[in-house]
From TrEMBL:
This is Nodulation protein L. Belongs to the transferase hexapeptide repeat family. Acetyltransferase implicated in the O-acetylation of Nod factors. It comes from Agaricicola taiwanensis. The gene is nodL. The lineage of its organism: Bacteria, Pseudomonadati, Pseudomonadota, Alphaproteobacteria, Rhodobacterales. SUPFAM superfamilies: Trimeric LpxA-like enzymes. InterPro entries: Hexapep (IPR001451), Hexapep_transf_CS (IPR018357), Hexapeptide_acetyltransf (IPR051159), Mac_dom (IPR024688), Trimer_LpxA-like_sf (IPR011004).
Length: 183
């Protein structure tokens, strides 16, 4: 049995070494793309969408991502039809990030699948892991919110500006604060 690559371990949500050559090449490709994309503020939504299709796993019709935008790899990001990400969003996509149809994401939002061992020994070795994030349809995520690893947000949810989402949020709920609590 052959040992799995660091990328295979990453995609499986297991401990992996992010300094791996294959992952470094994937990140370099994404960073080159980001450099090009972030110069396209004056471009049309159709021109920017064509670039998103180059990198993302899925881009629904009418999806808009305003530059500047930042991600780790891009190939783990899926955004639905009519989804909107405002300026300066950060998506750490070592695991899948799914954003549903019609969801609106405010400026400066961070969606973070990357996580780290609680035990200091594996951290010293440079090991990390990730947990996927799923955001439903027709959500509104206020500016500056943080969505932490492993979170599922249902449909029709409102996340208040500046909220730190550390627990799943059920469909139809509003969550605000740090840590975010459902109201």
């Amino acid at each position: 049995m052959t040992e799995r690559t660091q990328k295979q371990k990453m995609l499986a949500g297991e401990l992996y070494n992010a300094n791996d050559a294959e992952l470094a090449a994937d990140a370099a490709r994404a960073h080159a793309w980001i450099s090009r994309y972030n110069t396209m503020l004056a471009a049309s939504n159709d021109e920017r969408r064509a670039m998103l299709v180059e990198l993302f796993a899925h881009v629904g019709e009418g999806a808009v991502v305003r530059p500047p935008f930042f991600c780790d790899y891009g190939f783990n990001i899926s955004i639905g039809c009519g989804a909107f990400l405002n300026f300066n969003c950060v998506l750490l996509d070592i695991m899948p990030i799914s954003i549903g149809d019609g969801t609106q994401v405010g400026p400066g939002v961070q969606i973070l699948t990357a996580d780290h061992p609680r035990d200091p020994a594996p951290r010293r070795e440079g090991l990390e892991f990730g947990r996927a994030i799923s955001i439903g349809a027709n959500c509104w995520i206020g500016g500056g919110a943080l969505i932490m690893p492993g979170i599922t947000i249902g449909d029709d949810v409102i996340i208040g500006a500046g909220a730190v989402v550390t627990r799943d949020v059920p469909s139809g709920a509003t969550a605000v604060g740090n840590p975010a609590r459902v109201r």
